[in-house]
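Figure 2 data, in text form.
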Amino acid sequence: MEEKEEWKPFRNALDKRDRKEFDEMWELPKFYISACSNSVQYVRLHPILMSILLYHYKQLTVCISEVERIESKVNSKKKEGSSTMKKEQEVKKEENDEVPTTATLDSHFVKNKIAES
């Protein structure tokens, strides 16, 4: 492919790891070869670049959907946890409401006697 050859000096200037990824990127247009061949362009590189962009765009949208799914799952668990805490607080409040609240020693003994029963 002529276009890939034109980019060889750029590729050779990359790290070995980046070269591998660069080569993988150049393999992506094969997934869209029919669209590339049907696209009449004056610059042959344009359909190749568009194929690479489309491939990565599709990957990004999948990643975004997955992140949103995970966030909604986490948020629903947080809501469940907070509603459980509220219920526990309500139960404690109800227990405290059953005991008369006066600021005397009598109230202390009443509370302790109820707790013993």
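Caption note: Residues 83 and 89 are 10 Å apart (CA to CA).
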